[in-house]
Specification:
The complex is a heterodimer of chains A (321) and B (516). Chain A is built from 14 helices and four strands. Chain A is mainly α and 321 residues long. In chain A, the strands form two sheets. Chain A has a two-stranded antiparallel ribbon. Chain A has a two-stranded antiparallel ribbon with strand order 3-4. Chain B is built from 17 helices and 20 strands. Classes of the chains: A mainly alpha (321), B alpha/beta (516). At the A-B interface, helix 7 and helix 8 of A face helix 2 and helix 3 of B. Bound molecules: adenosine-5'-diphosphate and magnesium ion.
Chain lengths: 321, 516
């Protein structure tokens, strides 16, 4: 067990959650709850992997992965924005749809080795002791993108005009509507952005962090963790990023706990019986379930600052919106 | 009909600020505006009056670009316009302060004002714009901290933000939809001062209200709507009387004092004996309170809000536990389920019409059968016969004159008066022995108030015992046979309504005991 390795690996796997959770922050800030993140991620992972294999270009794979997630999310937008269907039901269906499509189209991809996103060191910064080797060396370019992505989105949401319009639509769509902001337009756009980022998160797995296609094991439920993370993060991109990294490190820590035969001079029960390890590996999901249950209670939702119109379809002139 | 001026007539100084001609607006099942004309002259304050549901907000929403009229024409400063969205209307200088504020609670005053504009384009440099908004406030005397979040502001301040929003966009025509309904008396005076100062600065205002004293105080001319039809178009405010205005709004003479028949009360129906109860905060709300209500009698409960009125209604209807005895027809119903009180013939008109009195997302039909859904022919052994339920609801809709497209309409779409009629209709059809009515006319317009008060008096004549809790002393004096005054959960005294006067009740409300 090496602290440097745990931190380093946590940043890499945390980047996956970072992209997916920030995408969901965008969608939810506009008032659209999309529980289809897991499906969009898996489809993105498959599309990216497959494109990279076919074109020998990982960057093209990344682009196609994003588009795949984005296009899938438009189905959710259509059903929930235009037809005002229940967002929970539609989001769950989207996960089934995305997972199904990915499994069918991904048939035969296992065991292939397409080009992946390059791993690089940042000059100068990487030579800082400890910090350099944890943060700035031997990371995929996507990890470095993640570092700047979170503060940029926080700035975008809180300090720019489109960000202000996004917040208004999620909090009080009627106010935005009466000032000429297209509520449907904004919701479509950010649902799509959420899809793009979920696709990117998927490709971050298959083309970068743990390259390969292992059917549903590729994402192994990280889409759900991302959804729970949004609640933990209180719809704030910076907190979503920190949460993502924290989860990533936790996962690596749990994995490493099972390695040594001796721990603090005693026999390591996790080493002796690997079944105990499964319970530890459930921890992130248990935390996610707690977050989802807690976050879905109306009272606590208000307190932790959920967008007021989250999950509520907008119809002009309807009383009480 | 009328001769049309040439298209694209050049706006000139004599053109009216707004001309709406033959406006028809139809919603599924409702004709909200039926060939309405409205002319707003330059620099005037034009009052638009009408009962709830008359179509005032709808007409103004068309002018603000939110709805498209089914037919009719609109001219702004002489120019023919056709709005496809609120943005179009804003561009032509129309600003609307909606009845239900359109503000984002989590954003600051400045952010709310800048919403939907193009300037600044990307980076929101708020401090710079805070200053611009302070300057605008100075000009019109509308003070509110630009850096405050909306949720931190009082209702009056929020309204100022709404007005600033329209002024910042350079509105020349302001529409104010029932702006005084939410304000305290002092705030109303301030608002009127602001309105006058705006007309001096070349703005024209449409002011929606149903109170004559406000209209005569600020408006020059007025237009009245009744069920979507204009019953007065741009007549002068001077010389208008409350009676004439009420008649125009309601379509019949409104008796400001409904007649109460002399009748002798019968046996005691409700006997509350020394009850005490605590409120939601755990503080004692009722303190050894006793009172009796007889058949065919209205006992009015007066008092400043929060002196135990809600708790009194709740312990009788089974919604709150208490110490002491509550006898209805001799049976103790204290600390029992609400169904026990219902079985004893208790009807409840709760204070909160949408939260407690009805289910907003269910239909009128479903709301009307909530008490008798178990009874034949609506309730069969295993299911509810919805055809019967709708027939039943349709009968009530006609009998109680409930305005709605049909009985499948969601309760949340009804105006306050019509929703209250649905609740009363449901309660009265159970042939109650005792009715507990809390604030039954709060927030309603004159016509609705009168019909609700009439229904209560009819129940009294039927022999129902009525406990009427109200903050309107006028209403209590008109309807009640006796008046009990509550102060900190105790009865200060019970007066005969015939010899009671406002001053005496007022004193008792502040805690002075009645000298027998
Ligand atoms: N969006 C809508 N859909 C259907 N009916 C509506 C809608 N808005 C208003 N109405 C109906 O149109 C009528 C006029 O309503 P409104 O203009 O709000 O009245 P007012 O402002 O005078 O109280 C009412 O019967 C109301 O129920
Ligand atoms: Mg209205």
């Amino acid at each position: 067990m090496n602290i440097e390795i745990i931190l380093h690996a946590g940043l890499a796997t945390g980047t996956i959650l970072l992209f997916a959770a920030i995408g969901e922050v965008f969608a939810e800030r506009s008032g659209i709850l999309n529980l289809g993140v897991e499906g969009m991620m898996l489809l993105g992972a498959m599309a990216g992997f497959s494109t990279s294999l076919a074109t020998n270009n990982a960057w093209l794979g990344l682009l196609v992965a994003m588009l795949a997630g984005g296009i899938l999310s438009l189905a959710h937008a259509l059903v929930t924005i235009n037809f005002q269907a229940d967002q929970v039901v539609s989001g769950l269906s989207l996960t089934f749809l995305g997972t199904g499509l990915a499994l069918v189209l991904g048939e035969g991809l296992t065991g292939q080795h397409p080009p992946t996103i390059p791993i690089v060191d940042i000059p100068l910064l990487s030579s800082i002791p400890f910090i350099g080797s944890v943060f700035f060396s031997e990371h995929s370019i996507l990890v470095y993108v993640g570092y700047i992505f979170a503060p940029l989105t926080a700035f975008y949401i809180n300090k720019t005009r489109p960000g202000m319009h996004l917040r208004a639509v999620g909090e009080k769509p009627s106010a935005a509507d009466t000032l000429g902001i297209s509520v449907y337009g904004v919701r479509y756009f950010y649902t799509f952005v959420g899809g793009l980022l979920a696709g990117l998160a998927g490709a971050t797995i298959s083309l970068s962090v743990s390259p390969g296609w292992y059917s549903t094991q590729t994402t192994s439920g990280q889409g759900w963790i991302a959804v729970g993370l949004v609640i933990f993060a209180q719809w704030n991109p910076m907190r979503a990023a920190f949460g993502g990294y924290l989860f990533g490190m936790l996962r690596r820590f749990i994995l490493d706990l099972q390695g040594p035969a001796l721990i603090f001079g005693m026999t390591n029960p996790l080493y002796v019986n690997s079944n105990y390890g499964f319970f530890l590996q459930m921890m992130p999901f248990i935390l996610t379930i707690i977050a989802l249950v807690w976050g879905s209670r109306a009272a606590s939702r208000k307190r932790i600052g959920a967008p007021a119109a989250l999950g509520v379809p907008y119809i002009r002139g309807e009383r009480g919106l | 009909m009328t001769s049309h001026p040439p298209p694209n007539a050049v706006a000139n100084a004599v053109a009216n600020a707004v001309e709406m001609k033959d406006i028809v607006i139809r919603f599924p099942g409702v004709l909200a505006n039926d060939h309405v004309n409205l002319t707003l002259k330059h620099g005037e304050i034009h009052a638009l009056l009408g009962e709830n549901g008359a179509g005032k907000s709808t007409l103004m929403s068309a002018l603000a670009g939110l709805y498209k009229p089914t037919s009719g024409t609109m001219r702004i400063h002489g120019e023919l316009v056709d709005f496809n969205s609120p943005k179009d209307a804003i561009a032509k200088g129309i600003g609307m302060v909606y009845q239900h504020f359109m503000l984002v609670p989590t954003q600051t005053v400045t952010e709310n004002i800048l919403l939907g504009l193009n300037e600044p384009k990307f980076f929101m440099d708020l401090p710079k714009y805070d200053q611009k908004i302070r300057d605008l406030q100075e000009q019109f005397g509308l003070n509110v901290d630009p850096t405050a979040k909306i949720w931190q502001l009082s209702v009056g301040e929020q309204q100022r933000v709404e007005i600033l929003k329209t002024l910042y966009r350079g509105a020349s025509v302001l529409i104010m939809d029932e702006p005084t309904a939410v304000l305290a008396p002092q705030e109303i005076d301030d608002l009127m001062e602001t309105m006058r100062s705006m007309t001096k600065q070349d703005k024209s205002i449409i002011f929606i209200s149903h109170k004559l004293n406000e209209v005569t105080a600020v408006a020059n001319r007025l237009t009245v709507l009744r069920k979507g039809v204009a019953t007065a178009e741009g007549i002068d405010v001077t010389g208008m009387t409350s009676e004439k205005l009420a008649e125009l709004m309601v379509g019949r003479k409104v008796v400001f004092r409904v007649e109460k028949k002399e009748q002798a009360p019968g046996d005691v129906v409700l006997d509350v004996k020394e009850v005490s109860a605590i409120n939601n905060k755990g503080v004692r709300a009722l303190n050894k309170l006793s009172l009796k209500v007889r058949q065919g009698e209205i006992l009015g409960i007066a008092g400043v809000a929060g002196n135990g009125q809600s708790e009194l209604a709740e312990i009788i209807t089974g919604l709150r536990d208490c110490d002491g005895e509550i006898l209805i027809n001799g049976e103790d119903v204290s600390n029992q389920e609400p169904s026990v009180a219902i079985a004893q013939g208790v009807a409840h008109i709760p204070e909160d019409r949408t939260g407690v009195g009805s289910a907003p997302n269910m239909t009128i039909a479903e709301n009307t059968i909530m008490k008798n859904y178990r009874d034949e022919p609506i309730g069969t052994k295993w299911s509810i016969n919805f055809t019967e339920a709708r027939d039943h609801a349709r009968e009530l809709k006609n009998a109680y004159d409930i305005l709605a497209p049909n009985v499948r309409t969601m309760a949340r779409k009804l105006s306050g008066g019509n929703l209250q009629k649905v609740i009363l209709a449901r309660e009265i059809t159970t042939n109650p022995k005792l009715m507990v009515a809390m604030q039954p006319t709060r927030g309603l317009d004159v016509g609705a108030i009168e019909s609700i008060q009439r229904l209560l008096l009819e129940q009294r004549e039927e022999g129902t015992a009525i406990l009427l809790i109200s903050e309107e002393l006028e209403e209590l004096l008109t309807l009640s046979d006796r008046i009990a005054v509550l102060h900190e959960g105790e009865v200060m005294g019970i007066l005969d309504a015939k010899d009671a006067n406002m001053k005496e009740i007022g004193l008792m409300m502040t805690g002075e005991k009645h000298k027998a």
